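On to our target:
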Amino acid sequence: MADLRQKTGIPELDTLLAGGLLPGKLTVVLGATGIGKTQLGLQFAQAGLQQEGQTGVLFDMATRGDSQSHSDYAERLFQWKLREQLVEAAFDLDQIWDAGTRTDYQHLFRQSGRRVTRRDMELDEWKEWKLEFVKKLDAAIAFFYSNFVHGVRRTVIDGIEPTERPSDSFQFHAFEYVYHQILRKEYDWVARDLFRAQFRSHQAQVEQHQYDFQQIGCLLLLTTHEVMLDDLIQRPIESGDVLSNANTIILMGKIREGNRMSRALHIAKHRGSAVDESLVPYEIQESGLKLLR
């Protein structure tokens, strides 16, 4: 795979990342609510329009409504009207090959309002989560596959709630499945999972719409309890944690400057190139995230 790095849509951040993010790898952005993660994610998704010819897609895993305000941000920042694929709506598999029906947003667990960590749930509640995810899995596969066959090469996953141990979170279990069984799987096997008994009748079109999963970048936005950047930097990484498997980790938090607070980010990890270990201040402007350097 060629080292064609995906631009983030923030030139100063691309400089910190030696040109951008590596496609085919996982990038994790951590920070508290309201710190600017969603703006960064939208800028990354929008940058795909210039670099790959298609905007990226947003996969929202929030369980308490659309607190991320993706649609509002996208329209205000880029005049980009997100087209949503509803999980509950019947999906016509024959429409997958029509680029005009492509959508760029899906909210998996809309307004369920339930707790997501195992320690807060009874066994029956945990089983209910699994059953709900299985019911919605076909819609998720259809969403990603119908985008990848039409040239989309960027995914932004948002809405995962903070938890002390990722292994206790149902959202992390769902993310691991989506990441490994959809995003990091050969195109024909994803198609088999989607079409199932109808695969043979669609096989010719599947082969005409091949894509290389190693060219798909994934940006995972994780909400944390930690607000201060120093606390995020000191946060331990468990073996097997999603952070330990990430190629790049970007931390976003508050810093104290005299008697005032401001925002800054830090590249905690970036395999494949030297890392600038500075704490870089940034602002959230009308046009999005702007690094001050």
User: Anything to note?
Assistant: DSSP finds eight helices and nine strands in the chain.
